[in-house]
Write a structure and sequence with these properties.
Elements (H helix, E strand, L loop, with lengths): L6 H10 L1 H5 L4 H16 L9 E2 H5 L5 H6 L8 E10 L2 H8 L1 H18 L4 E6 L2 E6 L10 H13 L13 E11 L7 H17 L7 E6 L11
Parallel strand pairs: 1-3, 5-6
Antiparallel strand pairs: 2-4, 2-5, 3-4
Helix pairs in contact: 1-3, 6-7, 7-8
């Protein structure tokens, strides 16, 4: 059966995304669709590239099970490894070959990373920036060897996504091992991981990383036990 909404609710929906609604032929429909898309992203529905949205990491439950299963998180810290891949000059691919080709290239990047590390989670941090998360349940340690493995796989598979003879873009590849000591609950992990992923990429992109980056964050979130009298 059809569902009706009143003007007040319709206006409230459109107001959530005023810039988008201003250019939409059906602003209410577009506003509802945007809300649905964002909720699906939070719940871990992959986007058009096949990667998980950053919202699944920062607002969703992507790491909940990983935290619950990681009993060592209460002792030596909760650790996650990551390989971050950023496509260089993506804007030139879109200008020269069109957005359809650009979208195909990004999808090929995700497919290559998923095939290389099938036990990991590939997350889209930004438009052309992806992270391969080596969560505890994957059993995969982060290592310097992953850098060349990623470059070799991408160089082998990406030409098929581009017109014949087209230039294959380069990549910025960063590596991170992050340990969070004494996290109180899983909700704190996502935003911290996202922030450190972006920091690791920025340091690599600026030539300041010096290889595999290792960091420990001390949260001190556990309540100490009662001392013996």
């Amino acid at each position: 059966m059809p569902y009706a909404i009143d003007d007040a609710l319709a206006t409230a929906l459109v107001t959530l995304n005023p810039q988008t609604a201003r250019h939409a032929a059906e602003p209410v429909r577009d506003a509802v669709q945007r809300l649905l898309d964002e909720e699906h992203a939070r719940r871990g529905v992959p986007d058009a590239t096949g990667a998980l949205s950053f919202r699944a990491l920062t607002q969703g439950t992507l790491l909940k099970e990983e935290f619950d299963l990681s009993t060592h998180a209460h002792h030596s810290g909760w650790t996650v490894g990551a390989l971050i891949v950023d496509v260089k000059g993506m804007i030139h691919v879109n200008v020269q070959h069109g957005f359809t080709v650009g979208d195909a290239l990004l999808k090929a990047v995700v497919t290559a990373l998923q095939a290389q590390w099938p036990g990991a989670r590939v997350v889209r941090l930004q438009g052309d920036n992806f992270a391969v998360l080596l969560v505890p349940s994957s059993g995969l340690p982060v290592s310097e060897e992953m850098r060349e493995a990623a470059r070799a796989r991408l160089a082998r598979e990406l030409p098929a996504a581009l017109p014949e003879g087209a230039h294959v873009p380069g990549f910025t590849v960063a590596l991170l091992e992050l340990t969070i000591e004494e996290p109180t609950h899983w909700q704190v992990l996502g935003p911290l991981v996202w922030g450190e992923l972006m920091r690791a990429y920025t340091l690599e992109e600026r030539g300041l990383a010096g290889g595999l980056q290792r960091r420990r964050l001390q949260l001190g979130g556990f309540v100490p036990g009662r001392a013996d009298p």
